[in-house]
Amino acid sequence: MPVQPRTAPGTLELLPPQQIAFQKMLDTIRRGFERFGFLPIETPAFELTDVLLTKSGGETEKQVYFVQSTGALEQGKAPELALRFDLTVPLARYVAQHESKLAFPFRRYQIQRVYRGERAQKGRYREFYQCDIDVIGKDTLSLAFDAELLAVIHGVFGELAAFGLGATTIKVNNRRLLRGLLAGSGVAAAHHGAVLHEVDRLGKMDRAEVAARIAAIPGVDAEAAERVLAALALPLDRLGELGLASDDFTRGLAELREVHATALALGVPADRLAVDLSIARGLDYYTGTVYETFLDAQPGLGSICSGGRYDDLAGLYTKNKLPGVGISIGVTRLLSHLMDAPGFAATGSTAEVIVLNADARYQADALAIARDLRAAGIATETYWDAHEVKKQLKYVDQARIPLAILIGERDHAAGNVRIRQRAGEGGERRPDLELPRGELLATVQRLLA
Amino acid sequence: MPVQPRTAPGTLELLPPQQIAFQKMLDTIRRGFERFGFLPIETPAFELTDVLLTKSGGETEKQVYFVQSTGALEQGKAPELALRFDLTVPLARYVAQHESKLAFPFRRYQIQRVYRGERAQKGRYREFYQCDIDVIGKDTLSLAFDAELLAVIHGVFGELAAFGLGATTIKVNNRRLLRGLLAGSGVAAAHHGAVLHEVDRLGKMDRAEVAARIAAIPGVDAEAAERVLAALALPLDRLGELGLASDDFTRGLAELREVHATALALGVPADRLAVDLSIARGLDYYTGTVYETFLDAQPGLGSICSGGRYDDLAGLYTKNKLPGVGISIGVTRLLSHLMDAPGFAATGSTAEVIVLNADARYQADALAIARDLRAAGIATETYWDAHEVKKQLKYVDQARIPLAILIGERDHAAGNVRIRQRAGEGGERRPDLELPRGELLATVQRLLA
To answer: ipTM of the predicted structure?
Structure first.
């Protein structure tokens, strides 16, 4: 009685055409990161439990997957290992561990899967890819990196647009400025976190409702809530009208302006980059610049790339102060959004050419052709079975390989080969090409270009 | 009190220069697989326990890592999930699960990490990469694929040689032929497994010792052991002298000859491919062709790429018969062998160029240069801090970036830029180039080429 073959719930597994498209997305992201000189790292999927779980045990720790070998399980020991739930904690551990061997500012990218023991529900994955970049300074880190990340993200999403995402807009804000605005609106520092948590709802919830929720926070009154929301709605160049002069306000405003101006100088177009004071990023982890990124066509999908500036990456592992700025692309979610779009997995195969076994007598010629094409860097498959040509062509169709090469008796007698081109998008058949063997490589290169 | 930052035992974590080199190795392998039209798949790191562990519980199952979420752990439930310990069981599950959507013969490659709860010891990893290719047929599978895999492996290792591996030799044999030879030498079928297990030691152990070990198997006598070892030492074209005529012998010999001849026709050079009758691959899983691959300079390292032909991939999950042939590169072991070789991680950075902040007044020009270079596909880093140029150049050295671009006051006045080239391998300084801004891109491209 065979076991029912199935994947674990909350995992995403792709068929080859989708995997090829996804791999191209990952390659695009990687190239986008490397174009700015970011350095790759990979960390092990599991970390020692005492290293990974040093925090006070918030929501994330409830979702941790623990790892135990058969022996440890039998002995009933507490698990020594756990799967990473993000790439930030492993980065902190990595930088602290290898600090003496790294050049700072350390600019790293990391594209790996992370694991969360979530309750299974649609759109929630227990295993998913994250694509992170961070720049880590020693003691200090130039604000220019906050702007550079905007240029990296713009470059990456500019190229990802072609996968069916369309245009994206990056929203940028500054948490220091927000705190200055809250203080200036009469909200005590103790309530800033709670208010910003509500401010984060502005994209998804009615303004009036958010105002009511802020006013409902004990110690914050309705007038303060109104002042906060009015301030957040102002454009950057009118914030001066508020007459605020706190250090947080002044410095936060200056930072936000500089990051915006430097991003423009780095080539991010003004219409792809929006200062939006309502972007708060709930996490207190962030201390300055914060980012979110939205698909113009589907803002309701939420932010697909978020991050920000933090004061200290690795306080849990080292006494050295390591400020940083980083951003993370939730690429599995993007993929699950794109997967069913028409044309997403249009390339069916890695093979660009297949050499058919049209007549066993000329198989030596067929192999020589395959060798020549591969030597020229063209991905070439060989059809080995001596099936009827009709059956072979059916396979070519199914595998969606652009060009098939055949040598029939007449072709061979004339010193020719035949190229069958894949039908067009509308299904219209293209004529076979018959050409001298010596012209094959150049013709294939031309057809594939 | 900070937590000591450290990785779990049995994992391999790389510094960026090594990671860049390793990534190039993986890219090379992937390109080598795709050049033959193999299709990528990825499977989740964990599988359902009842799907993954369907076998009778051999050595491998003792090494399994089980995965449990916090909640499941607290409830003391038996683990529902386990990390894959190879890529073969997930492939079997994948093919059985998606069978109706795949085109057969299904040619897949998979480059992912696998996990084994090994006892920690040098050279044994608990997490390591495997790079696998397999071709899976439905009911039947042409023997030509056994030869094609030889061509793929030869292509991959031909390119990997440049990473410091040097030349490799692939050894090929046929298990059916071995069984025919054993039967013809007077070894009963019931003892074939035990004898082949000893034959596998021939590379590592003295011939006399292996003979004694075979003769010590109950039911096998010393004369039979001698006959076996004498037969295994014969070259292929003298096997006829043995006068054997069993189906296994005849068919196994014909298969081995055909695989060898087809591999040569596919361009594998005769001196890189050796028929070696002592290659047995212990596993009974393999039924026909078997492969092992050795570094010419270090045969003692053992096989770095092994595999073979099997009768049925997914009998545990489906009643359909799915014969296959596959091979696996143990790339983490290769890497750990290469890592300390001089020149392995010679490229220190992904950045090919860095634009320095030599004079803050010309920072706008510097940013424009970085933009232009990136637009031309050149990986370009920007130095942001207004540190002394000496300190900036020290960073460039440390990060091993080939070219640094500076604009000083005199350069700017003359409409020029300056390029500082990285010192040569012997440490000899190369002269700075001073050139008009308009010639920069072409010059950089020429220097990098």
So the answer is: 0.94
